[in-house]
Amino acid sequence: MANYKKWKTIRESSKDFLTPWEPTWYPGEHSLKRYLKLLKIYSQKRKNHTQLSYFIFNGGNELLGGINVFNIKKGISQSCTIGYWIGEAYSNQGYMTKSLLILLDYLFNDFNFNRVEAACVPNNIASKSLLKRLGFDEEGYAKDYLRINGRWEDHILFSLRKKTFHAQHK
After folding, report:
1. Is residue 62 within 8 Å of residue 8, measured between CB atoms?
2. What's the pLDDT score for residue 56?
């Protein structure tokens, strides 16, 4: 509950910046009721080992953005998918790069994932650059992959393998 106002403020102040890359924002998207529902969903998915959700804060306790780890597969796959967002005021300042480096280290070492996947729409230059900077390989192109801002959008598919990550970030 303590972070609700921070979440609402950063999401709403970044609306024009975020909506081209996210699912449709509906009326009440940032209400307290919706926030509490999201926290409940995130908690349940964490308990079921199907998703991990994180907020990103700076040292001054400002909420900067968030990262979700989903499509968690164990056994012979040992893989997951990441999605992320950052408030407009904090974009292109290295916060997401640093946050993802910390998270990727955690996913590869503590969760023993072998592969982390991500996707972005082709014209999201910032996201493509971020993934390439982190060592992700472009693996393919998926037509009508996700419904973004009310439309089915093509996506570029990326992956990062554990051995590649460790080789680049020793």
Report:
1. no
2. 96
